[in-house]
Amino acid sequence: MQSIYFYVRxxxxxxxxxxxxxxxxxxxxxxxxxxxxxxxxxxxNFKKGDIVFIFRYYKFxxxxxxxxxxxxxxxxxxYYKKGGNSLSTLDWYINRIISHLNQFDLILLPSKHIxxxxxxxxxxxxxxxxxxEYDSRIIKTGKRIDRVAYYGSLLKTSLKxxxxxxxxxxxxxxxxxxxxxxxxxxxxxxxxxxxxxxDTNCAFYHMKCTSKxxxxxxxxxxxxxxxxxxxxxxxxxxxxxxxxxxxSNIKDxxxxxxxxxxxxxxxxxxxxxxxxxxxxxxxxxxxxxxxxIASKI
Length: 297
Fold this sequence. Notes:
Blueprint: E1 4-7, H1 11-21, E2 28-29, E3 33-36, H2 38-41, E4 51-55, H3 59-63, E5 70-74, E6 81-83, E7 86-87, H4 90-99, E8 106-109, H5 112-121, E9 127-129, E10 140-151, H6 161-166, E11 169-172, E12 188-195, H7 203-207, H8 211-218, E13 222-226, H9 229-235, E14 242-243, H10 250-261, H11 264-273, H12 275-280, H13 283-295
Parallel strand pairs: 1-3, 1-4, 4-5, 5-8, 8-9, 10-11, 10-12, 12-13, 13-14
Antiparallel strand pairs: 2-3, 6-7
């Protein structure tokens, strides 16, 4: 029987995989999905046809590939920058992803959009996509406030300091590994989250995953964003809280979001409208997709 292993590099990866797989026991999840790390990988006796999923950092297991084992790599946001604070271009990113094609049996990209762009350059059945799930460890207070916040690295937003100041947008480093542990150390209010990036020459615009949206959904917050490909793909063309690319409507969108979060019926209607997306991006649904993908390679 085929087994599925999730390679975990560190404690952060380990806890993330526990969330994804519905943790039930030490190193084995429902006796079906298993966690494995660098200390146990080398001497582990895999069976023929076993699957190893690798997230972001692939170097260690790929140095010691096992016979008859299938390897699936999910780069997530790997290569969004070239080094330092220099964001990578789309062509550079695509070429880097393609350069790993011979190492893996499958590479999972974060959206249909970036999958299509990569396959336009290198059409291969060894590319597929999967969305990023929400984290069930995030707990809500049940309190709604009309605070506007950007969560993440300032390198990953086109909002300027003047925008943050003029529109009273609070900032926090959660989600981007700057202070990731703080994401789970306290309860979260339902508020208004904003995400805006409009440099179409950057790879990040095209290969962005759903992490900010899933964090917003799990906290019961309202999501404001521009029409980045991942959001068009998930939210559709008619989503009511899109920002114009020149931010010309930002005041109106923020005011609408505040009216919504402060009004019981409007807020509940918004949550109901997002409920199907919440299901799609649930750990249970994403795990089912991992299983389906693994069964086909």
